[in-house]
Here is the input.
Amino acid sequence: MTLTSINNHPLVNKLLTNRWPQFILQALLLAAFLFTILSGWIGTPVGSHNFGIVFLWITWWALLILVAVPFFGRGWCSICPIPLPGEWLQRGNLLGKKSEAGRSQVSKAIDGIGSSEAPSPQETIHRRWPRVFRNIWLQNGSFLLLGLFSPIILTSPQVTAVVLALMLVLAFATSIFFERRSFCRYLCPVSGFIGLYSQVSPLELRIRNKQDCVTCLGKPCYNGSTTGYGCPWGVFPAGLQKNTNCGLCLECVRVCPKNNISINLRSFATDLERPLTRMDEAYKSFIMLGSAMTYAAVLLGPWGALKLHSYAVFTPGWMVYAVAFLGLNLAILPGLMFSLMKLNPKGASPRASFTAFSTILIPLGLMFWLAFSLSFLASNVSYIGISLSDPLGWGWNLIGTAGLGWRPIGGFFIQPLQVLSLVGGLGWSTQLAIKMAKVQNVSPLPAIIFCLLTTLIMLWLIT
Amino acid sequence: MNPTNLRNFIASRTGKQLAWILIISSGLLIAFAPLPDFSRSAPQTHFIRIEANKFAYQPAQLHVNPGDIVTIELASTDVVHGLYLDSYDLAVQSDPGQTATLTFIADKTGSFRFRCNITCGALHPFMIGKFTVGVNQWLYRGWSLAILIVFGILASTHGWRRNNTFNIISIVQK
Here is the structure.
C-alpha cells in the first residue's frame, strides 16, 4: 500500500533531482573506500585496530543491515562508490550531462549509453551483458566465494584491501566492456542480497501514471536524453514491480519529462506479495539464510576448532569446512525445503512451490542477519572510536579516543533483542506463508516447518 | 460447545481478538516470567582451569548453578590472552605460561559469552566461550516464543481451513 510520494514536495524534489548532494556523498565515500584499501596495505595488520576492518566490517556492515537495507532498500547502492570510476569513464563526465560536442572521442567511443540515439555497434565497444548470465547466479557465486573466505577477510586488513581493490578493478573493467552498471546488476556480491532484501523496504521508486509512459517519446528514462542518462541498471521504470533491480540512483527522476517518477513511502514488505518465480533468486534466499547461520556458528560460537579450520584456508580442515558451508547453502537447506514441499497433498508442483515459498525466507533471513549483526556490533563497537583516532594503528590520537579501551555494549539487552528479532522474523514469515499458500492453493505447513526448524537452530546458535 | 461451534467462534472477530490477547499474554509470560530453578541446592564452589591458546578457550562451555562461587584460573599457553565475562563485567588476563585467577559469585542467571579482551591476533574478536548459570533462559524462552507464534498465527488464520487446502492429516498420512 502506497502511503505518500516523498518527491511531491517541491523542495524534496529539487534536492533529489539535484546531482550535487548525491555526488558529494559518493565522492566522500569513494575517498573513504580508497583510504580503506590504503589502510589495509600500509596500516597495522591487527584487524581490530585498522580503519579498513573497523570502518567496513563493523560500521558499514552494521549500518547496512540494521538501517539501510530494512528502511531504504537499495539506498546504499544509490551512493555506493564502487561503480563510480567506471561510470565516469562511460559518461566521460563526473557530473551532469555533457553536450555531444564537448565530449572527447575516447568517451564517445566507450560510451554505449547516454544518448537519445542508440550508438551503432561500430561506435561503441560496450556490449549487452551475455544473455546466459542475465540473472543473479554469478552474484550467488561471488557471495558464496566471499563467504568461504570471510573469516580471513573479516580479520585481515591486507586481505580486505585486496578484495576491495579487486571489486573496484572488476567494476571498472566491466564498465569498459559492458553497458551500464553490469557489475552492480550481475556480479557484485553485496548488490545481490541488497536487491533481495530491498523488497522488505518501505521505500519504492515507481511510475505515477502508466499512460504517460506509454505515450512518452524516446523513453528517456531508459535511453537517456539531453538532460540526463538512461537507467544505469538497465531497468525501464514503467515495468518496475519490485525493488530488486532498481538502484535508486534517481537518474529517471531527473530525466523524466513528465515528472512521472515517484518515490513512495509504503508498508513494509509490499513486494513480497508477489512470490519469487526464478530459481536464482530462490537460491539467494537460501544462501543468505545458510550464511547467517554459518557465521553465527563460526564467529559467535564457542567452537575454537571450527574457527581455526575456517581461517586456515586451503588446509584439509578448511576443505571440510568449505564443503560443509557450500553443502549447507546449496544442498541441505534447499533440499530440506524441497523435500517438505513434496509432502503437499495437492496443488502446484514441488518445484513451483519451492520457488514461490522461498519468498518467505526473505523476512526470516533479514532477521537472522539482524540478530547476528546486533551481537557482532555490540561486542566490537568500541573499536570504532579507537580506529577513528588512530586509523592506521601508528600510535596517533587524532580525536582523543585512541586510548579508549575495548568494552562491549548492550549487556542484558542484546540477547532479548536477538530473540525478539528471530521470533518476529518467524512470525512474519509464517503470515507470509499462509498468504502464499492461499494463492498457490497448497498447504503452508511444510514451509512453516522449515522456518520453525531453522529459527530454533538459529536461536540455539545465538543464545 | 461442540467442535463446529468452537471453530465458528474462533473464526469470528471476537474470537480472533480473544485469541490474539491470549497469544500476546502467553508471549509476555514466556518472555518475562521468572523460570523455576530445578537445580536449587546449597551453593557450591567451582575451580575451573581454562586454557587459552590460538583463539580458543578449553573448556569453552561452562555450566554452574545460580549462587555458586566460581574461581576461574586462566592459563595462557601462547600469547597474552584475556577473559571478559559479558553482563558480569569482569575481566582477567594471563601472560604466556602464567596463570591468573578470577573469583565471583554466579548471581546472574542465563547464558553469557566470555571473550578475549586483549588483542591476541587475527581471530581475536571471535575468541569466545559460553558461560551458563542455571538454565539458558533466552534459549528456552526463544524456543517457546517461536512455537507459540507459529501456532498462534496458524490458529488465528482460517482462510486456508475454509478452502480445505490446509490438511494436516493428509500430510501426516502421506
User: Anything to note?
Assistant: The radius of gyration of chain A is 23 Å. Residues 110-123 of chain A have pLDDT under 50 and may be disordered. Chain A has two domains: 2-198, 280-462.
